[in-house]
Amino acid sequence: MILQRAFIVAGFLVFIVPEGSLSQNALEFARPSVQSCNKPSYVSKVHLKQEDYTQSIHYMASVPELTKGFTTHFWLNLHNVNRNATVLSYALGLHQLDTLVLKYVGGGTMPLWELTLNGTVVFRQPVKPLIQGQWHHITTTWATSTDLWTLFQDGDVVAEGKSLQEVNRAVPGGGTVVVGAFQKTLVNGADDQEEAVEGWITYFYLHSQPIGIYEYFQKVWTRRCSSDMAAFNDIIDWVHTPHKLVGGVKEVKASSSCGSF
To answer: pTM above the 0.70 mark?
Structure first.
């Protein structure tokens, strides 16, 4: 039996699962350049440098109302682990609350992952620091009906819990999915360079259903380097979903070596 510890941190009820217990093993004023929305014929990785313009990936995807919840998983390799890195930003448009934001808050002695839904912070979970220049696999899942969430990092269940600030309603559909930067929809619609990813991203997926721990190991972790994930990821599929590369993003072929792309 796996023992869990429950405690309250900053208003959140958090359950900590012992590490390894379930493991299998700057504001933009100019219009940036926009590259092709066609996906390459190979499995790619995307490089975001955040120099002259805010760089990000804008997906051409039809996002349904997330009535049951969501799951997102991806590989991330940061050049600078001491800055905030917004991996996923989903919003409806100008003058609307950003409805789904997942970011890594770096720096200091206690880095963390933060998830915000419908303007409410669901969790701010301390984690092992990401290692600069090294690939890490991250998965987050959340269920609408129960407000239950689980965070996985590199095949370990980092924590699971329930927000005391209840969201308990669906994330609305019809918005835009941006990967690699925070959409400043309440200001001017631009992406925020200070909250953007500086590094590499590959195998990014977004699914309209929550998953449990067993499903994570069966459908995500064991297939973390598979390019055949379209059936499970119905919103964003890294290999097949068309996108725009904004701000001079470079997309190149990824290595077939899992975890060393």
So the answer is: yes
Q: Which residues of 144-183 are buried (b: 16+ CB within 10 A; e: fewer)?
A: beebbbbbbbbbbbbbbbbbeeebeebbbbebbbbbbbbb
Kindly tell me the burial class for residue 214, based on how many C-beta atoms sit within 10 Å of its own C-beta (0-12, 13-18, 19 or more).
exposed
The counts of H helices and E strands in the chain are 1, 19
95 within some domain: yes
Supply φ then ψ for residue 126, to 5 degrees.
-60, 140
Domain contains 137: yes
Query: Within a domain: residue 182?
Result: yes
Low-confidence ranges of the chain (pLDDT < 50): 1-4, 7, 9-10, 12, 15, 19-33, 95, 185-191
Q: What is the DSSP letter of 199?
A: E
Q: Token pair for residue 198?
A: 């500086």
